[in-house]
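Figure S4 source data
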Amino acid sequence: MKALVLKRYGFKLSKCIEFSDVRLKALQDYDIQIDVYVAGINPVDYKIVYGMATVFNRPKLPFPIGFDLSGVVSKIGKKVTAFKVGDEVFAKVPWHQMGTVAETIIVEENSVALKPKNQTFIEAAAMPLVVCTVYDGFKVAEIKEKTKVLIIGGSGGTGSFAVQYAKYLGAEVFA
């Protein structure tokens, strides 16, 4: 199976990353195997390549990169109940399962959600890390009804979701 792999840290992408053959780990009871249709690339991905994320995570090189994906379930573990083969899904994988820029990936069931029917695979792959970033940030900041919140970059990827989510929560939004 092919995946985008980080060979070494640095600023020249052509020397740091390449598509390589990667062995798929064994499917565990609560795992889902997904044929990846679209992988999202986020600022954290290039920061990993540059070596800027090694302060809090330093996996052994080489390793596959990417956190966001959308695709179709191709296999499920024995104890998976929320998904079936053929389901259209999207996911933000945890650090220890990085590697969404790949043909196929195995992901824990609790990191996966059904893709909304009204979204394309491209739209679904663009959401996970953005949504998690906003959700976590709002939780820490205790954003709720009548909270005044300033969202810098309200027209960008994260900002546009933050504006919508803040309004949903009943906050007073400034962008």
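Figure S5 source data
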Amino acid sequence: MIKDLAQKYFEEVKEIRHQIHMNPEVGLKEFKTSQLIKDTLDKYGIENETLYETGVVGLIKGGKPGKTVLLRADMDALEVDEMADVEYRSTIKGLMHACGHDGHVAGLLGAAMILNEIKDELHGNVKLMFQPDEEKQGGAKPMIDAGILENPKVDAAFGIHLWGLGKRGEVELCSGPMMAAPDEFRVTIKGKGAHAAQPNVGIDPIVMASQVVNGFQTIVSRVNNPLQPLVISTCMFHGGDAFNVIPEYVELAGTVRSFDPEVREMAPQMMEAIVKNITNIYGGSYDYYHQFKYPALINDKAMYELAKKSVIKVSGEDSAIELRSLSMGGEDFAYLCQEVPSCFMLVGISEEDGEPAIHHHPKFAWNDEVLIDTSSYLAQVAIDFLNE
């Protein structure tokens, strides 16, 4: 029945997805997206309000008393110039929905349409969380701080992410750790400028920075327990303006990914120690900045079991796949996992005989019919949580 209702609303949901895709907006600037969401909820008589900048929260009140479940979708785009060969290409140069958030929003609106149609049968309430700024600073925590989990109090939360590494018809789920904590570091290595022909009168920050980058990798290979995942990636290395001038400083920036809290604390301590010792050897100095960002995403066992059953109801026994591997990617749905029992689902979008859809790539694309499944999964898991 749920999939039939998803099919009923599919054309409207598809058009919403296309509108969002053609008008991508980055974090905290999702003004058109936010208005489209509100207009759609208004059309169906679903109570809604703006919460934290461009965020939107909707509320569907069931016909019978009961619990409250939250369904979440993120809605920001990326600074990527689209190259995908689709009719609904981005109309804004340099911006693109290259991670599937247009599908998350459209899929949740589809679920809202389904749930609103059968609301008299629901035991409790459904909160709809349309969250801004997942890709940068993260909008989940500010929305929590603004009270999204209260009035009525939320008892559980569920979310989905379109997943290029999975095939259409598959949903990957797990109990426990799923996605890593994606922390950020920035380092300034300070030396002393000089003519390239006289390096002895200067202090070369490029040499120091190169040794720092290599030193960081020994934390992964020789300090960290190899059974505890850890990634340290230096993704920015800026220094110098001329081929024959030793610069005054070099700037490094990158990311540290981990699951275990002890590993997460250990990594920046070791990283700064490496920076300090290398710069000391050569007579340089440094500034070190480390930002702990989203926590690791850890699914609740009971919510995982419930979500798995819901997926099977929609798409059959073979559709629910145990998570193939932990992801070192980050996701601020993790903040919801810290507050209430939650489960995050990865919905496959790649075609059976095709190449995987690569997230954050200018040619990232997927079939609109995936929306039938995402709307169905979100609606079904909400129904099952409230009515069981």
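The chain is about 35% helix and 25% strand. The longest strand covers residues 156-167.
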